[in-house]
Amino acid sequence: MTSPTRISVDRTALGAEVPRRLFGTFVEHMGRCVYDGIHSPDHATSDGAGFRADVQELVRELGATVVRYPGGNFVSGYRWEDGVGPRAERPVRLDAAWHSTETNEVGLHEFADWADAAGLEVMEAVNLGTRGVAEAADLLEYANHPSGTALSDRRRANGREEPFGIRLWCLGNEMDGPWQIGHKTADEYGRLAAESARMMRFLDPSVELVAAGSSNHEMPTFGEWERTVLRHTAGLVDHISVHAYYEEDPADAASFLASGVALDRYIGEVADIIDEVGAIGPDGRPIGISVDEWNVWNQTRWNEVDKPRVFTGDWPIAPRLIEDDYTVTDAVVVGSLLITLIRRSDRVSMANLAQLVNVIAPIRTEPGGGAAWRQTTFHPFALTAAAATGRVVHPRVDGATIDTARHGAVDAVDAVATVDGDAVTVLLAHRELDAATDVELDLGAVTDVEAVVLTIPDGGDRHTTNAAGAERVAPVALSVEVGADGILRFPLPPLAWARLRARLR
Ligand code: AHR
């Protein structure tokens, strides 16, 4: 047992409202996310359109609010017209982003219907890699204009009488990265994004637009990219993106477990640049930060092993790409990254866990008649999305700290709280690997306390993963003692993520 951890939540010190869009996710035409993932016409549970009902059920259970689509790197070579109209007439194309073959069996109509049934708001990305202003405007007119023009009537002829009414649009993807199809300098991209935004707003002033920020915090152009892009697009876009993936260096688990600290710094630096540039959106408010790709991803394995193999082979349909098996440690990191996102609700306007199914995903599937199951990371996401509503409260945490090689000394217990009417939620990540801590949590007077914890299962270790038919890592009840003094007391196991809910009295 390490030293005790005392946490106090001042329920009257209410911060920013937690945006519901913080619990977004992402479906890319990549690997087996769409084909063999959400869509699998041969599966026993599939509906008339070929979408798996068992996967849809897990998506609903996950409780995500938004879904970004159709990429990712894929969108930078995508022609949206390929995915509309009679399926038999849709062209088969090479997807240069992922060295795959795209059948276009699923496109805008099928995906929007699926998202609607899953209760997800679509966040559509336009191709600013190989394409530009005209094609972005065409897609918007096709999707959102009611009728009476060639494009809107084409949508109606394709079976969708009412407009899709898509509000959220990404202006390209990771255009700062040399791996991106149609990669651009900050000035080239900034101009194109600004002109695309201007045209899109002419057509539909209700759209909300996201400019592409840096692909990651370590990009050599980070900072200058944001400044330049924001100078071009201020007044025309509402959000700028942040993409952030974290991976474990096997020799330095402590730094990995503190990834939330790195994300917090990244968000803080982008917020400072927004303020420095004075970047205001069309609504007169500072441009928001859209963390529209975040997760744990073993990119070393992808770059050194899988990518060389995939990019020298043939052009398969829906190959297995970056199907990372998530461990208990990964789940605690994902839970902790969510704590950071909630804490930064003052600047983060939305966020998308990348991705949803099979590709670095909380949900996995097997093809044919195969199962669908929850990875370890499913749980912190679902439990947070269901309960972190209302306004943020920043708890005071007094306890042990952990020295990390990459992020300095960090709190062993990371915590955030939300208050929504009389409901209070506290989220905790315990980053200590070897010892439990006794927590004393002061929320003031509360009733109806409920608590769950996700940690190493009996007989497992911190590398334990889930598999089809073997969901070993799942939340269990956490026993909490409510003292006569109103303080909640409970032991937090090593390497754990926990959620407590209570009613304020
Ligand atoms: O999510 C996988 C990929 O990661 C996306 O296609 C790309 O935007 C990012 O680099």
Helix/strand layout:
Elements: E1 5-8, E2 24-26, H1 53-62, E3 66-69, E4 93-95, E5 100-102, H2 108-117, E6 121-126, H3 133-144, H4 150-157, E7 168-171, H5 186-203, E8 208-211, H6 224-233, E9 239-246, H7 253-257, H8 259-277, E10 288-296, H9 299-312, H10 328-343, E11 348-354, E12 363-365, E13 372-374, H11 378-387, E14 391-393, E15 396-398, E16 401-404, E17 408-411, E18 413-420, E19 423-430, E20 437-442, E21 446-454, E22 476-477, E23 481-482, E24 488-492, E25 496-504
Parallel strand pairs: 1-20, 2-3, 2-11, 3-6, 6-7, 7-8, 8-9, 9-10, 10-11
Antiparallel strand pairs: 1-15, 4-5, 12-13, 14-18, 16-17, 18-19, 19-25, 20-24, 21-22, 21-25, 23-24
The chain binds alpha-L-arabinofuranose.
The site of alpha-L-arabinofuranose (AHR) has 11 residues, from loops.
Please describe what this structure looks like.
The chain is α/β, with parallel strands linked by helices. The chain folds into 2 domains: 5-11 and 391-504, Sandwich (Immunoglobulin-like); 20-324 and 332-342 and 352-387, Glycosidases (TIM Barrel, Alpha-Beta Barrel), CATH 3.20.20.80. It is built from 11 helices and 25 strands. The protein has helices at residues 53-62, 108-117, 133-144, 150-157, 186-203, 224-233, 253-257, 259-277, 299-312, 328-343, 378-387, and strands at 5-8, 24-26, 66-69, 93-95, 100-102, 121-126, 168-171, 208-211, 239-246, 288-296, 348-354, 363-365, 372-374, 391-393, 396-398, 401-404, 408-411, 413-420, 423-430, 437-442, 446-454, 476-477, 481-482, 488-492, 496-504. The strands form 6 sheets. Strands 2-3-6-7-8-9-10-11 form an 8-stranded parallel barrel, surrounded by 6 helices. The chain has a 6-stranded antiparallel β-sheet with strand order 14-18-19-25-21-22, with helices on one face. β8, α6 and β9 (239-246) form a beta-alpha-beta unit. α3 (133-144) crosses α4 and α5 (186-203) packs parallel to α6 (224-233). The longest helix is centred in the middle third of the chain and has 19 residues, at 259-277. The radius of gyration is 23 Å and the shape is globular. The two termini are 32 Å apart. 50% of the residues are buried. The mean pLDDT is 97. The chain binds alpha-L-arabinofuranose. Residues 28, 30, 71-73, 173-174, 215, 293, 354-355 line the site of alpha-L-arabinofuranose.
